[in-house]
């Protein structure tokens, strides 16, 4: 059903997929996006993007990857590997092989040390060939402690002037405490950003932007009345995904009723009928239990840590892991028993 034609639109304005064209850059999202790109271009190592469910992490990720993959000059390009959910890897060996496989490596080593050495040799070869690497970890809140240690080891592979690999982690707030507990890793975070809910102005801007991209002519009467925007903002709590979901529901209902405009009463009625809103404390069934991470302590947290992750300096010489105790690999027994 092309319901959007009823409003003179060319495409669906409030789809459920992370379409980069629909990416509305608030000041916070713009700051995150531009600083993330800069950190990657400068080969600074680890970047961490924190945001609760529906805050726009996936949209930022997709927009970033699309821009990087569209680079026309070889020096601007990246070899990109993506691990969509670390929870799918039950052992450290599986995690390492998943990473190596993303870069076309077979991962023939028997232990975590063998696999890490294989990856280091690959990084060295790519560096000599002047090719840059980017590893993207999604659902980073599911990273186990030993998996974070593996990433820390990767970050110690460097020349005197740059890291041999960029790592970007997109995660829900549960990751914050895990990183804060690992000072050696926290000090390697070169860029971090915590996404926040939208305010009322940005909620209106997001709605207008999506309608414009979908073909709403400039100067056309607004489809959503101001009081409808107020209701959507309040009920969504500023969460972008909830805002788009509520807007889509309102447009479909308006079509059924033969209306060309959504007012506050209609928005309130439509949202009020939803069983699942996706906003904290408003769903009729609001479960906060979280599945435990592999080998973890249950993974449930009552209070999100709001501390900004500290940024620290690194500095080893040559393309080798950092010297001293910091260079030690401390992987779990699942991938070869290194300790």
From TrEMBL:
Pfam families: AAA_22 (PF13401)
Gene3D superfamilies: P-loop containing nucleotide triphosphate hydrolases (3.40.50.300)
Entry superkingdom: Bacteria
InterPro entries: AAA_22, ExeA_AAA_ATPase_DNA-bind, P-loop_NTPase
Domain ORC1/DEAH AAA+ ATPase: 43-178
Region (Disordered), start-end ranges: 279-303
Full protein name: ORC1/DEAH AAA+ ATPase domain-containing protein
Organism: uncultured Thermomicrobiales bacterium
